[in-house]
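ZP: hey, is the aspartic acid complex queued? I don't see it on the tracker
AM: it wasn't, my bad. submitting now with these inputs:
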Amino acid sequence: MTEPKDPNPSNDEEEFDPLTDREDEAADDTVRLALHTKILIGLGVGAILGIGANTFSASNPAINEKVMWIAKYVSDPLGQVFLRMLFMVVVPLVFASLALGVAQLGDLKKLGRIGLKVMLYFLLVSAIAVMIGLSLVNTIRPGVGFSPEIQSQLMETFGKEAEQKGELAKSDQAFGVNTFVNIVPRNPIDAAAKTDMLAVIFFALVFGIALTLIPREKSEHVQKLLDGVGEVIIKIVGFAMQLAPFAVAALIFSTTARFGWGVLRSLLWYAICVLAGLAIHQFVVYSILVKIFARLNPLEFFRRITPVMITAFSTSSSNATLPTSIKAAEEELGVPPQIAGFVLPLGATMNMNGTALFEGVTCVFIAQVFGIHLGIGEQLVVVLLSVLMAVGAAGVPGGSIPLLMIVLSTIGVPPGGIAIILGVDRILDMSRTVPNVTGDLTCACFIARSEGVELMTSQAKG
Ligand code: ASP
């Protein structure tokens, strides 16, 4: 959220500017690279310890008790503190960066043009993702001939959890005309308090537009304030990221130590469909998009956004990853702050390609398990609804599950069937969050490029 650099800084202004201070930049880079490596090590250590603990505790109740104690009293709290520090800044960050992004884009025509490109990109790329998923699930057909014993065992184990999610789906997410009316908040503070991100986004957009329409001498102060708020938040995220290597290890430990690997075995082909689809979208589709639309080297692109991908994987949350992705977009990819500030907060809430793919695969898989045939018409409905639901899903762990149940019931598949996949959802959730945030970054690069910006140049590190 740095203001554009003054090309002719006056000599008498001895203001400290980290972008022009080469020595500091180098030092900062070393610290950041080290942190990034530390986070990666944390991920590996957490996974090894978690899987090891899971394996040993499977046959030994005494060890199992100790592992669960460590997960409950050590790794969960550490992971939660980290997650909460990131969630803590999401609402002010989305508001400040969107309102400022809109205001700095300046004229409304430009805003409209960029807004239209962003929305088209979100919808089209999400639709591509669902179609990849549907091709895989219709070819591999993991739910055909699924063992009825395993099915009833899973329904019994996860049925209660599915019921709770169903209540959530009924209570506040029923899809209809009110879904759109509710995007306009009655009270923005209330929307913020409930982390109703679509409503917060709406308020921020209107606020930013209004800022461009009032006299400059008045809007200037507000813009400076918003810019300052953005800077403060990035600092707070910096504090949280110091915790990241340990917190990521803790989060991954908690997940893998508790994970039902046995459940994964019985759902292996379904999980393969989702993971293969996500991998194709992440590494093939995005590489092509980044190459064609942003004219970037895909390998270099992925290298520079590695910390964002790790944060997404370990937190399972697009919202929690937003501060890291704004930082990477501006500092690593060279996306101008007003474009990053506009595209990324919108993307974190509305653009979830991985989630859309997961929803498509899961709908067809559960229909296959129940022996319900979905014709081409129904599958098209699945594509449409998966894209829409991915827009509405909250960027938090498991945020898409209640909406997925709505899609299931719309196409005539029992929504309670979601219980079949809940046991493996955590690992799929971590995995789908990676393309969710990568998709926002590819979009930011595409928009910047289409507006004539040279990416990954001088201010980008590399
Ligand atoms: N965890 C996902 C995200 O935050 C949402 C979901 O698919 O459940 O992007």
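AM: back. The chain has one domain: 3-23+30-460.
ZP: great, adding it to the tracker
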